[in-house]
Amino acid sequence: MENQTQIFGIRAIIEAINSGETIDKVFLQKGLKGELFSELEVMLRQNSINSSYVPSEKLNRLTKGNHQGAVAQISPIAFYDMETLVLDVIESGKTPLFLLLDQLSDVRNFGAIIRTAECTGVNGIIIQKKGGAPVNGDTIKTSAGAVFKVPICKVDHIKDAVFYMQASGIKVIAATEKTNDTLYDVSFIEPCAIIMGSEGRGINPSIIKVADAKAKLPLLGEIESLNVSVACGAFLYEVVRQRLS
């Protein structure tokens, strides 16, 4: 599976943004100046497009063309509007089940989670626009194509998604070790959204504070944590177990 389509050249990227292309990330050359480059920087900020400044060597590795100091990666999927998706799921009569991923960074973990989400009936996955893993070729391959079947939404901040879920009558449960409750102590029968944190730091403490419930996996060995995609699978199948009982 090839990585997502790339666009290179400052003017080409500006035109792509103006035409509504779903841009996943833009790599900008460190130290580059100029009026057109500044215009691109402003557009990236205004449209909340993820970007990073890298050495020219990085851009040379990304593309063999004349990149002019900017390379954009186009997402292979179209992202859903979160509010519309939540409303559609509620109106469908299904019991909502959503995943909120707080800046998960590894594309293979992301793909594995999407695959499990598809198998367990997750209605949608919400990610943050900046700081998280992109949807690229590795994500698609690891998800076994599930990325084309599970709606994925991007929001400015995960906390915004938490508040919207709560306002829509959906209980938000944080998967964190910072609790005495295990996932077997929490009810997943009602509409719910599960927050999974990043590989390194877990869920942001400010997000844990606003969650309706917290739950952890019981760990009986000496290792203190599970891979996030494995942990997510355990949570999702506990939802399935409770809802099938």
From TrEMBL:
SUPFAM superfamilies reported for this sequence: alpha/beta knot, L30e-like
InterPro entries: Alpha/beta_knot_MTases, Ribosomal_eL30-like_sf, rRNA_MeTrfase_TrmH, SpoU_MeTrfase, SpoU_subst-bd, tRNA_m1G_MTases_N
Residues in the signal sequence: none
Annotated RNA 2-O ribose methyltransferase substrate binding domain residues: 6-80
Keywords, comma-separated and alphabetical: Methyltransferase, Transferase
Family matches, as NCBIfam families: rRNA_methyl_3
Protein name: 23S rRNA (Guanosine(2251)-2'-O)-methyltransferase RlmB
Lineage: Bacteria, Pseudomonadati, Bacteroidota, Flavobacteriia, Flavobacteriales
